[in-house]
């Protein structure tokens, strides 16, 4: 056993060494008494305050983490990394205003602080403040364009905004770094679909279907892509799979479109009727039903139907468009 020494500096070093041995072995609770004893000998010991915070973080005790990080920042107020850690802890505990304050302070100290840029963007993304998230994540990607999780989230923001070309660029970069990342594969498939590049989208849909065959959104959007490419049996199979768990409007619309293409108008009516039982004012479904009537009974019947529906629902632009196209 190592002999006890009276020299405070030596005693502190010995206590920290022992505490670190426990902490690195993930015995966080066992490390605390040694750190606390050392802290009693030197309450302003910066590295020791950080060791204590790390031990409490290992115990998922964020309040004590914050206590020791704030003690450290009293003496080291320009440590951007610790401001980011404090912000992360506040974000995890739902105190977003405090999180923003410390991320902002970190970026004032170091505008290229990756953790602060990442954390601030994540906070805004989770609050669905997507423009604000981009303001932090785009500079982060200029610093490191290989951050796959950030690339996919930025790609998703652009996809939601219908900025499909930017989305394709982000997902392409993500796939260069991680070719089998399912979020990037799905994002690329859907962004190419959004651009109308169905031939290029198809291999990505085929890839994501191998990874996630039970996701309704994947099934219906892949089905839509294959339908547009004239691959009707494959599209029909996917739409039917999407219906297996229960009602799905997109799958029923897809099956109706397949039936119309095959001139199976009674089948198409049945699918559309299922939707209209739940959503009698759905413009897209009513417009598609007019297409069924035009094929089965002629354009004049479809015109009469559309005019009657427009008298009931004049605000439905889909009906106005369908009438103009007849």
First-to-last CA distance: 94 Å
Could you describe the largest sheet, including whether it forms a barrel? none
Average pLDDT metric: 94
Helical/strand content category = mainly alpha
| Order of helix and strand elements from N to C terminus | HHHHHHHHHHHHHHHHHHH
Shape label: elongated
Low-pLDDT runs: 1-5
Amount of helix: over 70%
- Beta-strand content bin: under 5%
Question: Helix count, per DSSP?
Answer: 19
Q: Count the strands?
A: 0
User: Over all CA atoms, what is the radius of gyration?
Assistant: 30 Å
Question: Overview of this structure, please?
Answer:
It is a single chain. The protein is mainly α and 326 residues long. Helices cover 79% and strands 0% of the residues. It is built from 19 helices and no strands. It has helices at 8-24, 28-41, 46-58, 62-75, 80-92, 96-109, 114-126, 130-143, 148-160, 164-177, 182-194, 198-211, 216-228, 232-243, 249-261, 265-278, 283-297, 299-312, 317-325. Helix 4 (62-75) packs antiparallel against helix 5. The termini are far apart. 40% of the residues are buried.
Question: What topology does this entry show?
Answer:
Elements: H1 8-24, H2 28-41, H3 46-58, H4 62-75, H5 80-92, H6 96-109, H7 114-126, H8 130-143, H9 148-160, H10 164-177, H11 182-194, H12 198-211, H13 216-228, H14 232-243, H15 249-261, H16 265-278, H17 283-297, H18 299-312, H19 317-325
Helix pairs in contact: 1-2, 2-3, 3-4, 4-5, 5-6, 5-7, 6-7, 7-8, 8-9, 9-10, 9-11, 10-11, 11-12, 11-13, 12-13, 13-14, 13-15, 14-15, 15-16, 15-17, 16-17, 17-18, 17-19, 18-19
């Amino acid at each position: 056993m190592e002999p006890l020494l009276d020299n405070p500096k030596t005693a502190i070093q010995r206590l920290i060494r022992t505490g670190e041995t426990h902490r690195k072995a993930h015995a966080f609770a066992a490390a605390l008494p040694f750190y606390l004893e050392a802290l009693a000998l030197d309450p302003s010991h910066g590295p020791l305050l950080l060791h204590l915070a790390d031990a409490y973080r290992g115990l998922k005790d964020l309040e004590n983490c914050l206590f020791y990080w704030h003690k450290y920042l009293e003496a080291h107020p320009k440590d951007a990394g610790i401001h980011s850690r404090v912000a992360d802890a506040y974000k995890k505990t739902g105190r977003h205003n405090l999180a923003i304050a410390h991320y902002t302070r970190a970026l004032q100290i170091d505008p290229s602080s990756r953790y602060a840029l990442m954390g601030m963007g994540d906070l805004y993304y989770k609050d669905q403040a997507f423009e604000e998230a981009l303001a932090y994540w785009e500079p982060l990607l200029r610093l490191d364009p290989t951050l796959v999780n950030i690339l996919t989230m930025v790609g998703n923001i652009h996809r939601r905004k219908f900025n499909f070309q930017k989305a394709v660029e982000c997902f392409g970069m993500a796939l260069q770094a991680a070719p089998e990342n399912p979020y990037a594969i799905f994002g690329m498939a859907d962004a190419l679909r959004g651009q109308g590049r169905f031939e290029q989208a198809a291999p990505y849909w085929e890839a994501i279907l191998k990874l996630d065959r039970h996701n309704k959104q994947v099934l219906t959007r892949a089905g839509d892509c294959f339908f547009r490419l004239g691959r009707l049996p494959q599209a029909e199979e996917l739409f039917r799979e999407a219906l297996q768990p229960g009602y799905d409007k997109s799958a029923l619309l897809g099956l109706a479109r397949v039936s119309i293409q095959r001139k199976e108008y009674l089948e198409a009516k049945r699918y559309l009727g299922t939707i209209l039982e739940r959503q009698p004012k759905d413009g897209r479904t009513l417009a598609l039903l007019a297409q069924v009537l035009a094929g089965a009974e002629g354009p004049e019947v479809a015109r009469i139907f559309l005019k009657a529906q427009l008298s009931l629902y004049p605000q439905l632009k889909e009906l106005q468009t369908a009438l103009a196209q007849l």
